[in-house]
Amino acid sequence: MSTAIAVTSADMALPAQDERTVPAVVLQDLDRQPLEQTLDGMQALLDQHGHVIVVCSPAVPDGVQRRLHTVRSLLESDRIALFRPELPPLGIAVLARQLRQLASCDLGPGVLASAGRLLTHYVHCGAVLNSVTRLDRVPVGLKTHAKSWVPGSQFGVIAHPEPQLVRIGPETVLAGPDFATWMLVARGQLQSDWITTTLAPAWRVLGLREAALPAESAGWWGTGKLVEFCTYLPDLSVLYQLVTSVRQSVCHWCGIDVIGDRCVFCSATPPGPDRAVQHSHASPG
Questions:
Q1: Is the distance from CB of 199 to CB of 247 less than 8 angstroms?
Q2: In this structure, is the dihedral angle defined by the CA atoms of residues 161, 163, 169 and 172, taken in order, positive or negative?
Q3: What is the pLDDT of residues 230-264, one digit of tens each?
Q4: What's the gap between Cα 85 and its chain centre?
Q5: Hey, which residues does 258 pair with through a beta bridge?
Q6: Model pTM score
Q7: Distance CA 22, CA 104 (A)
Q8: What is the pLDDT of residues 139-162, one digit of tens each?
Q9: How many other CB atoms are found less than 10 A from the CB of residue 3?
Q10: Residues 111-149 as b or e (16 or more Cβ within 10 Å = b)
């Protein structure tokens, strides 16, 4: 029984990276369909897969987020994990696909859900924008704001792992990953080849693929005139080695194996030293 990896729209379900990648479950129109229909659908997923990991962008409508929390609460289930990393939409889609790759392996649901937080450290997410006047998710100085009013200006932005923002010119440089990656590019309403002709060679990416721009990207970046990009580790063997090299522990609340300091399913954190001492001295009665 493989853990289900769910996304909140079809454009967040990227094509499979390899033949083992499990299909994404698309939770379409969560904020529009009747609650009873959503509950029945999620219960069916739990019955079929045992656990569900919902990978959700911070840019989804508030109604979608509320519906997800409502469903989890009404089902009273610790088998639904809501994973909402602070990444741009294309990065979220890449991360969801990596979890779909790992879902084909012998990883428990707690380890798989925890792996999402680990893998965020290995993606570099950014975009080329024609304006940063409405960009509020990356620090932007006043001088850059002023330059964005100059006709024809374009900006290279890194949102993760470390914010960067430069006005694109002949000598533009952005710091990138220091390990081998592939790059995914999604084009919006902006004509620019800077990513493919300059950035990708500078970062020495091993390969480059294109995808459709997620619908949430324009809202996240503050403009529809953009080209979004994300670098990532494509090989399942590398992803699996990264995840299995991290020490696992057992969640003291729900009892599943996890990596890291918090269970993604029940949100429990390890008990502190004081509580651990209390438990060790507690009488059986």
A1: no
A2: negative
A3: 999 999 999 999 999 988 888 877 778 878 777 77
A4: 5
A5: 249
A6: 0.89
A7: 7
A8: 877 567 666 667 788 999 999 999
A9: 23
A10: bbbbbbbbbbebbbbbbbbbbbeebebbebeeebeeebe
